[in-house]
Amino acid sequence: MEDEKSDHWSEVLKRRLENTPKDERSEEEKKAEETELFTKYYTEWKGGGDKDTSYNNIPRFYYRLPAEDEILLQKLREESRAVFLQRKSRELLDNEELQNLWFLLDKHQVPPITGEEAMISYEAYLQVGEKAGPKCKKFFTARVYAKLLHNDPYGRISIMQFFNYVMRKVWLHQTRIGLSLYDVAGQGYLRESDLENYILELIPTLPQLDGLEKSFYSFYVCTAVRKFFFFLDPLRTGKIKIQDILACSFLDDLLELRDEELSKESQESNWFSAPSALRVYGQYLNLDKDHNGMLSKEELSRYGTATLTSVFLDRVFQECLTYDGEMDYKTYLDFVLALENRKEPAALQYIFKLLDMENQGYLNVFSLNYFFRAIQEQMKVHGQEPVTFQDVKDEIYDMVKPKDPYKITLQDLVNCCQGDTVVSILIDLNGFWTYENREVLVANDNNSSNTSDLDDT
Q: Is the pTM of this model over 0.85?
């Protein structure tokens, strides 16, 4: 019975296959239909239509800048930026609003007074926020309060600290807007010419620079701008982010010159002060013996204590920008900034590039020996007994403690916090002498301080 059934079904299947029309399409056509059907059903399953518009959800991240010949678009962009900056400026608190804020804070202070500081509680802080107006709303948040909350047993914050916080924020935004006005490209950075224009127009607002002659303005601007670019543009791209300018202390130092009663010590330590700028430019003029406005290697050799080695000076003139083998004022400023700030990473990077003769990215025993031999020769000239290189080499490696015991990288010099001492040993006889006699110098300093204490008593 079962055999009969199987025969029956096999006959039926055979007949059906014979009656089914043959698919004479090629394999490519079948695959194309399969792909089309898959796309159709997959799109329907995802809820899409005939056209895929998912790219509309991607936010725009590229805005083409107008070309030089698109004058109308450039003007439109400049105008829109100016309007935007004006709107941002109007959002800031003016002097009257800041004064009103101070009165409100003082009125809502909560006793007892801690030391000499008036305090305010969180509840009173929120009340002031409601009365101070919409411009102040962003300052009266739990996050800001928590930032300023320290060890007060009543959970209060200092009114003065909060007001200083607001003042600092307002000043930062004002300065950001002021710098952005000079950002010709409108992309958040200043080129050298942009920063020069900013500082040139800032000079009349700085009382400490009132005595500068106008003929010296260009040299002053060059001196000021070089510090920004030396430290904030290590890759020498020719532009600095406005954000980096605001984050560093240089702008504070520059604007400190608004203080009409700035002390003599502050002026001498401030690179942007008139005495400092005149000192640097005066040194340059004194070194320029032939008065051609440029410095030769021989003229530069008298820099400072005139103890820089000739080998190091050779490297300076090989690596730095020169004109017919002579150095201009701008290149000289980089040189001065590097040697006067040897502890700073940017200065160490400058000097390291000169010491790394083969551009290997590290200093080895050969490099150290090459530069220290010039120190030994100088010691002989001055009648001093030369120190063996082996001793100095061991001391340098002990100070630096490089990751690779045979190679000293720039990062090793920065990390060891004694990079300034290491480079001084290699390039400057006076620097090496100071290091060698450090114990005697410390003892002399202690003796002199003890003597002054006795004099006082």
A: no
